[in-house]
Amino acid sequence: MSLLYSAFQVVRAAGDAVAQLQWYATPSSQPSSGIAHSNIDNDQNQQPLSWFNVGIASLMLAINIVLSLWLGLGMSKSLIVSTVRCIVQLTALGMVLNQLFLTENPVYIFSMVLGLGTLAAFEVTYWRSKHRFPGMFAGAFVAITGSAVGVALFGNSLSLNTHPAYTAQKFIPTVGMLFGANLIGVSIGVNAVMSSLDTHRDRIESALCYGASRWEAMKPVVVASLKSALVPSISNMSACGLLSIPGLMVGWSLSGANVLVASRYQMVVMIMLTASTALSTMLAVIFCASVLINGTPMLRLDLLTTNKPKQAVNMSGTSRSSSRMTLLRAGRRPKSDLYLSRHPSCVAVASTTTSSTTATRTHSGVRLISAAAAGR
């Protein structure tokens, strides 16, 4: 801690020394200290953007469309549709925010926040996940919306000095950024849980058969899923300012605000994004694992639904799956493959399969012997 504090003091002293230098700019050209002040409004050479400027910018995508057609990527339609969606969605968002920023009615503000949370939960449940389970939409909504609203209220009131904390001009943009980060983290985490439970199904069932508790069975899955889901957020925060310039800081800089003040705002926002992503992902991952490993405890992969076509399985897989489903329908805990191989239904299927295989081999052997005798 002392080393980190010393490094912070050195960086702070160097920044103060550079800030006192006046050779790089005249006092009249210094940017204002207020983040809300914009020098663009006073610059007569800067014209406001119009739809013509948006159209000119859209023409740059023509290069990508030509390359897609030339290489046969099949992405030209996706580029056009995505561009149209971006323009329509941002236009509608701008019209709504323009009206919300004129009012401070908490009913309208939190109604929009709940609407954004509903869309984020729908995106996670029906578009970004390969599988679904009962209650997934409600769990994703609570995890994404609850963590985003809680972190935004705490950060706006104590870190961004916003009073009241739900002021529309700062609260809605902050919550919108948190929703985007939470959506990615929750999607990765939930998909990792479902995939891990399916991959390590036999090991989890064996642990449950030997008396492992619900938390002992799902803890390794939860830990691994959280690690994989939080890697993008942590990497983005570590590379911020070194390998990339964040969008929030770029926007404030383009508006003519003080760059140092904008960097502090960006620090607060990045910390809020990481904290909200970690909280929402942890809630969603634990909820997903708790549903698929119920309180019996029993692994309930039969609750998962998917839109992918069913693939054919071999006879051994069919017998084990059928036995597992039979035990699930009977309300019993599913056993490991070692137990299922000794289950009467499995033994019957295995015996039938072995008998048919032996009969086929015997019949083939008789035919070969008969053919050899005839050759003699």
UniProtKB/TrEMBL annotation:
Transmembrane portions of the chain: 51-72, 79-101, 107-126, 133-155, 175-194, 234-255, 267-293
What organism does this protein naturally occur in? Coemansia aciculifera
Its family? Belongs to the UPF0014 family.
Superkingdom classification of source: Eukaryota
Keyword Nucleotide-binding tagged = no
State the annotated membrane topology for this chain. Multi-pass membrane protein
Can you say where in the cell this protein is located? Membrane
Cellular component GO terms held in the UniProt record? plasma membrane
What protein name is recorded for this chain?
Uncharacterized protein
Instruction: Note the InterPro entries from the entry.
Output: UPF0014_fam
Give the principal location in a single coarse category. membrane
For this UniProt record, the keywords arranged alphabetically read as follows: Membrane, Transmembrane, Transmembrane helix
Q: Does the keyword Electron transport apply?
A: no
